[in-house]
Fold this sequence. Notes:
Spore Coat Polysaccharide Biosynthesis Protein SpsA, Chain A, seven-stranded mixed sheet
Amino acid sequence: xxxxxxxxxxxxxxxxxxxxxxxxxxxxxxxxxxxxxxxxxxxxxxxxxxxxxxxxxxxxxxxxxxxxxxxxxxxxxxxxxxxxxxxxxxxxxxxxxxxxxxxxxxxxxxxxxxxxxxxxxxxxxxxxxxxxxxxxxxxxxxxxxxxxxxxxxxxxxxxxxxxxxxxxxxxxxxxxxxxxxxxxxxxxxxxxxxxxxxxxxxxxxxxxxxxxxxxxxxxxxxxxxxxxxxxxxxxxxxxxxxxxxxxxxxxxx
Length: 253
């Protein structure tokens, strides 16, 4: 059984262009932190963690940076992100049995939650096509604002979904065809009870988010932490969650 960990990233963000290379903790950029956090999970190595970026010239700078860090990358379609993932998976000689889709605007991505998903497979469950966590009301984590979670997808099922990817929503958001179309088997793990606070929002989309991300990482004094330490910081700083609540209300999914 083998996994790939695919980090979706580009420089052309609408709300914060160039954020992938924005420094968020000392000399560490956003993409550095996400990559290093993912590398803390089990079953990762420098060969199966890959940044999937675009063919747009705007991403030349990101590619140069990744090359300088010896981080693997793949360039593909900018708008049809499903195709970008599909083209990557079809291009590799050793195709993974399963792959993680990880968003690069989540610097607090939790390695333990990646391991939760890997362990489902390693304990013998090969009957599902899509795995992730869910909120306490049943909402898939990808549709929440926590910024701690990833998705795990069976490669064969993903490639077979191609004929169903027939609208821009499916093309741009990659995985809804798997958990919304009704054609695939899904498995969801309930989030840890410490995350019941609906005001937790740990994604980086705006300049205001940048300030908050920097403050939290400074409190954590590094990038080797677990989600419970993040929750502890938020409990000590209600002003952080107040800002998060404002952002959630402005950017409701």
